[in-house]
């Protein structure tokens, strides 16, 4: 399975990804601990009960990583050359243990690379939603995507 080459991306195309993932306490504690984020909102149940959420909230960077990965099998597997940046990231609703997330991607724009002949630049909007169809993350990402290999090219 491979992702799309630069030439295959169509501006305005919208994808509803088939992958879903239920968030567990282990996901939150492990990711938060691995990244050395000592925020008690993610780790301390008793502290979190005193907040506006009344419970622990998933580390938002885990949400970015998870939703940012749902598109890989169908759009960028083996064809992305790297992330160039994120233009915006918003978290309209929190994610809690037990929420099930899914993702959608829209192709916002694309252009030829001005410095490389083997690739182009694509702007992606990734949206993450929970089981109640509430948006939990909105982000715009810019990726460097491989062009289709030329005939006779060994790659």
Automatic annotation (TrEMBL):
Q: What is this protein called?
A: MaoC family dehydratase
Q: Name the InterPro entries on file.
A: HotDog_dom_sf, MaoC-like_dom, MCH/BMMD
Record-stated family: Belongs to the enoyl-CoA hydratase/isomerase family.
Q: Which residues form the MaoC-like domain?
A: 11-117
| Pfam families attached to this UniProt entry | MaoC_dehydratas (PF01575)
């Amino acid at each position: 399975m491979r992702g799309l080459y630069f030439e295959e991306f169509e501006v305005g195309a919208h994808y509803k990804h088939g992958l879903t993932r239920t968030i567990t306490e282990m996901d939150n504690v492990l990711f938060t601990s691995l990244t050395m984020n000592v925020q008690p909102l993610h780790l301390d149940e008793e502290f979190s009960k005193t907040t506006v959420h009344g419970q622990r909230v998933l580390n938002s960077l885990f949400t970015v990583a998870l939703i940012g990965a749902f598109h890989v099998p169908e759009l960028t597997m083996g064809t992305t050359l790297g992330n160039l940046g994120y233009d915006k990231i918003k978290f309209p609703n929190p994610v809690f243990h037990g929420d099930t997330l899914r993702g959608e991607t829209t192709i916002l724009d694309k252009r030829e690379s001005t410095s490389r002949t083997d690739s182009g630049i694509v702007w992606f909007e990734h949206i993450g939603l929970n089981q109640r169809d509430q948006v939990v993350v909105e982000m715009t990402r810019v990726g460097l995507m491989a062009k289709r290999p030329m005939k006779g090219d060994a790659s």
